[in-house]
Amino acid sequence: MLFFVGFFVGAVLWCVAISASIRWGRRWLRPGMFRWINALCGLALGYFGVRVLWATAQEWLEHQVLPSLKPTR
Description:
This protein is mostly helical and 73 residues long. The protein has one domain. The chain contains two helices and no strands. The longest helix has 39 residues. The protein starts with a helix and ends with a helix. 0% of the residues are buried.
């Protein structure tokens, strides 16, 4: 039970901190800069998604497809 309470409190504090930092950032940064930040974050997420997809495909090919192609003796 203590773990779940600690997790919940941490998640709430994280969300409040992120919301406060975004609100603070909107005072100092123009909308164009926020678009660039969003674009960079989107590119980073896309890059990591492609890497995970590539690693998964390689593992699947090595362990599922390639062994079935080897001739049995």
